[in-house]
Specification:
This protein has 204 residues and is of the alpha/beta class. It contains 9 helices and 5 strands. Strands 2-3-1-4-5 form a 5-stranded parallel beta sheet, with helices on both faces. Helix 1 crosses helix 9, helix 2 packs across helix 4 and helix 7 packs across helix 8. Bound molecules: 2'-deoxycytidine-5'-monophosphate. 2'-deoxycytidine-5'-monophosphate (DC) binds next to helix 2, helix 4 and helix 8.
Length: 204
């Protein structure tokens, strides 16, 4: 791959397989990858630790994305709340855009990459799956980590986060008009990754 800018925007709801697809796509094409959910999670974690949301977003440094607690349910919930605050989103735009424009290609996954952060991205995907399928996957993952949350709790969390992410006034979760839709409900990981690679390959 040359050193040209080539941005891939991958959006979709929680637990649709976006992260797995994004990592695989980045590895396949040799692009850098940014999980933008980590930015909101890092801000959420700081808010849980007592900081004010906008100040935490403005002061965020790359090392904050390495914090060990960012995958917890409590942090996910806090992330979804801070993500509804316009000033928090605004504070995170420049970092995401400069990542997107790095030479050699970049994959960014999130909720508003194709619609707001990188509306001119060369390739846009919207990776989704039914709420039940996403909750089932999250439930199995949590159980594997020893969590005793019930399926009903996990499904309720997924639905609450979807509702908040889609209903917010600023940069709500929705597919860009020119995004390729990949519904992974009945796909294996390999099939989802292959569909994504095909869609992106057509834009290269
Ligand atoms: O993808 P994730 O589950 O790590 O995201 C955590 C929260 O951050 C999610 O509820 C919505 C928010 N988010 C966002 O609003 N915009 C993004 N580009 C990425 C995540």
């Amino acid at each position: 791959m040359s050193e040209r800018v080539f941005t891939v925007a991958i959006d979709g709801p929680a637990a649709a397989g976006k992260g797995t697809v994004s990592k695989a796509v980045a590895a396949h094409f040799g692009f850098a990858h940014l999980d933008t959910g980590l930015l909101y999670r890092a801000v959420g974690a700081k808010v849980l630790a007592g900081q004010e949301a906008e100040a935490a977003a403005s002061a965020l440094v790359p090392a904050d994305l390495e914090a060990s607690n960012l995958r917890s349910s409590a942090v996910a919930e806090a992330a979804s709340k801070v993500a509804a605050i316009e000033a928090v989103r605004a504070a995170l735009v420049a970092f995401q855009r400069s990542f997107a424009e790095r030479p050699g290609g970049a994959v960014l996954d999130g909720r508003d990459i194709g619609t707001v952060i990188c509306p001119d991205a060369a390739a846009k995907l919207f990776v989704t799956a039914s709420a039940e399928v996403r909750a089932r996957r999250r439930f199995e993952e949590l159980r594997g980590k020893g969590s005793d949350e019930t399926f009903a709790q996990v499904l309720a969390d997924v639905e609450a986060r979807d509702a908040r992410d889609m209903a917010r006034a600023h940069a709500p979760l929705r597919p860009a008009d020119d995004a390729v839709l990949i519904d992974t409900s009945d796909m294996t990981i390999e099939q989802a990754v292959a569909a994504a690679i095909d869609a992106i390959g057509l834009r290269l």
